[in-house]
Known about the structure:
- By secondary structure, this protein is an alpha/beta fold.
- The protein has helices at residues 16-30, 49-56, 83-88, 99-104, 109-121, 134-138, 142-154, 159-162, 183-200, 203-208, 222-226, 243-259; strands at residues 4-9, 38-43, 62-65, 93-96, 125-130, 166-169, 210-213, 233-236.
- It has a single domain, classed as TIM Barrel, CATH 3.20.20.
- It has twelve helices and eight strands.
- An eight-stranded parallel beta sheet has the order 7-6-5-4-3-2-1-8.
Amino acid sequence: MRKALVAGNWKMHGRIEQNRVLVDALLTQLSGLPEADIDVVICPPQVYLAQIKTLLQGSAVALGSQDVSRFAADGAHTGDSSAAMLNDLGVRYVLIGHSERRHEQSETDEQVAAKIASALLSGLTPIVCVGESLEQRESGQVTDMISAQLKGALSSLQRAEAEKLVIAYEPVWAIGTGKTATSEQAQEVHAFIREYLSSAFDEDLSQSIRLLYGGSVNSTNAALLFEQVDIDGGLIGGASLKSDEFTAICRAAALSTING
């Protein structure tokens, strides 16, 4: 059985005092949640990674980064943070290929692949994001787009590398819009991702990799999404900034693991 995973993506939100209050509330509310049932990750802006590491010390909540440099070696890459630097800070997970990076920063599949390789080299767990726009969905291009993004991200990986990934499906039209894919729509794409992984590698790897759904997940819809057979948790945006909401989502994910 795959262990549930919920990652909170704070995006470009946070201030030192706000961060302290939020993390303190989260740790209090998450206490008692069985570690055997769920992994919880917080991905703050990089400028706050050191602060959040200190606040999480002694807890089971892992630290994640929202991005990583595609350059593995130290060098003249102004503004970048390498995977080795993030590892040095205690980061365990890293978001790669988020739709906002792809669209706002023109991040390509080639750059995504380079970031995955860099992260794996330093022992970080990549959470690789894929998803389609509303136009692509309405024109029937969902599987074509997901296939292209998966191929671009994974084609250069060996099996032993690929099995270390987490993949997050985030329909672009549902991110921060309040719109959510129905549980059936989300399950359909997650099942397709497993089929792709089985074809690209093998069935055992396909069934072992954790697949997350991201796109306006909240405490109301989380349970229905997470009870789908191929959805193993969530990549949570706005709701991760509200301790009650995020805790409820984590509990729903943990319960889905227990219920199998």
